[in-house]
Amino acid sequence: MSKRRSGLARDRRAYRICCRPSQPSQPCSPGMITGLTSYNYYPMDFSWNALPGAISYTVTTTESVDYPATVTYTSPATTAIISYSDSDIHTVTVTAVTSCGSTSSSITVQPCFLVGSLVHMADGTTKAIEDVNVNDLVIGAFGEINKVLALHRPLLGTAEMCKINDEHCTTNHHPHVSIDKQFYCGNPELVSNSTYGHKHNVIDENGNIVERMLHGLNKDRIQKLHTGVKLKTIEGNRITKSIDVYSMPEDTQLYNLVVDGSHTYHVDGYAVTGWPNEHDFNYDTWSHV
Length: 289
What we know:
The chain is mostly beta strands. Helices cover 9% and strands 37% of the residues. The protein contains two helices and 26 strands. It has helices at residues 3-19, 188-195; strands spanning 37-39, 44-47, 56-61, 70-72, 79-83, 92-98, 101-107, 118-120, 126-128, 137-139, 145-152, 161-164, 168-171, 176-177, 183-185, 198-203, 209-214, 222-224, 230-233, 236-239, 243-246, 256-259, 264-267, 270-273, 281-282, 287-288. A four-stranded antiparallel sheet has the order 1-2-5-4, with no helix packed on it. It has a three-stranded antiparallel sheet with strand order 3-6-7, with no helix packed on it. Strands 10-11-22 form a three-stranded antiparallel sheet, with no helix packed on it. The chain is elongated, with a radius of gyration of 23 Å. It starts with a helix and ends with a strand. Mean pLDDT is 86; it is low at 1-21.
């Protein structure tokens, strides 16, 4: 056997062992990157699980021409640091190269609700959040009537979910309103640093996908939710008796509403934020600026 043929045979054996050890007759697959997570902010740290058979990784991110990002990463480590010089939302993608080909994983973080969550409308009825339309009227946290300006429908990404009082499911970083007009969520730092102050894609009244800035609440206004907090509800208030944080697949579809006025509405009876903005609403006096 020639050296060339011998080398090809070795390559084929390595190919089978790496990519399909138990079923060599099946198509080769590079596998999937799992555990892609972001933590800390400015700069942001990223980590992911090592992929068996990976030869190398690359880390890329969307960035502005005028405000490029700085990626600090040396393959084959499974951590990276990215510094952004603007406040837009970016997509981070990790790609692994194996002898079977390449595979990628990307993440974003958004605060929202699950399909089927009930929104309280101004006419006293409820609608599943996925059925609410632009220009519909909803009930704000303290009885004000707010109009739906746009629809926000991101995926869960690496964010965690939270179940409050065994009855209300929300992302763990979506601010809720208390009876004393304060704001609480399970992860205040995440929503303040990674969601507020960024542009997000929303659906406008014509059904078009457009970018819209989410100004958000002042960072020191959002407190960590804990048992005992009296959350504002459609019928008055409810004491937070249990908080259960859990995970769901990254491609879980979420729903949120962009509303005017106080930028609040009720989901499953609980008062929540709907793209809050301190530029046009005073949350100390609960009145328009």
